[in-house]
Amino acid sequence: MSSTDKIFKLLSFGKQTKTEPKKFSRILLINAFIIISLFFLLVYTLIELINRNYTLSGILGLISVCLIINILYLNRTLKTTFSEYFLVIIFSALMIYLMIEGGPLELGYLWSILVPAFCLILLGLKRGTIASAIFLGIVLILVINDFSFIKADYPGGFILRFSSVFLASYLLVYTYEYFRLSN
Fold this sequence. Notes:
Structural class: mainly alpha
Oligomer: single chain
Strand content: under 5%
Helix content: over 70%
Largest sheet: none
Distance between the termini: 30 Å
Number of helices: 7
């Protein structure tokens, strides 16, 4: 058995023979997103524990637990739509939290550039575009209005640079997904 087959077997949780191919590929994709995310979340949870940032560590740990519950739910029920929306909502909430708090060294906003990729790949072009636009709108409202609860201190031109990079990331992933789906 090749290493690729072993990876697919790990990500499928034994559902390959019991599921239609399109749904099976969605399950593989969602499982891959969750497992990769769990790796990073657990690593950063430990780093933040070592750095004594217990709030962020607790939030990352809580999200890790939610992802484990999500992967178990997905592989028991095979309800991909719920799992896709759950992932997008929980990661968007984490990214907004990192925008508000600033994250370590006030670089938490960098992770928000991944939101278009998450949304477009998991939800499809139409729903992913709507979810990405809602996320960008929330970020713009939070940063432009300079609310008192935002702990990060973003410089004057930040919103223009952030929006430009966010839109560039969105356009790249959208173009890729559009051509992938049309071929």
